[in-house]
Amino acid sequence: MAKQEINALNPEILIALANTKMPFGKYQGWLLCHLPEPYLVWFHQKGFPSGKLGMQLATLYEIKLNGLEYLLKPLIKK
């Protein structure tokens, strides 16, 4: 299993993904899991930022592309 695949199985990554806010841009302050799919498609085409945020956005892109965003909803902290 590749390192990235192992990380994708880590529930802490999904919890962070469901509760991290977008730090910049048009959707600054939004939870990443609430970002609209066209915004993630744009990042996919232009290139995701480097670092943790880029990994989170790329992961979220794959989750939304496959219709799995419902898995994140119970992980959002109230």
Overview of the structural elements:
This protein has helices spanning 3-8, 11-19, 37-46, 51-65. It has 78 residues and is mainly α. The chain has one domain (3-75). Helix 3 (37-46) crosses helix 4. The termini are far apart. It comes from Sphingobacterium suaedae. InterPro entries: QSregVF_b (IPR024530). It holds the Pfam family QSregVF_b. This is DUF3820 family protein.
Helix content: 40-55%
Number of helices: 4
| SS class | mainly alpha
Number of domains: 1
Q: Termini separation (Å)? A: 34 Å
Mean pLDDT: 89
* String of helices and strands: HHHH
Number of strands: 0
Largest sheet: none
Structural shape:
globular
Query: How many whole angstroms does the radius of gyration measure?
Result: 12 Å
pLDDT under 50 segments (min length 5)? none
Strand fraction: under 5%
InterPro entries: QSregVF_b
Organism: Sphingobacterium suaedae
Protein name: DUF3820 family protein
Write the layout of secondary structure elements.
Layout: H1 3-8, H2 11-19, H3 37-46, H4 51-65
What's a concise summary of this model?
51% of the residues lie in helices and 0% in strands.
Essential attributes:
51% helix; 78 residues; DUF3820 family protein
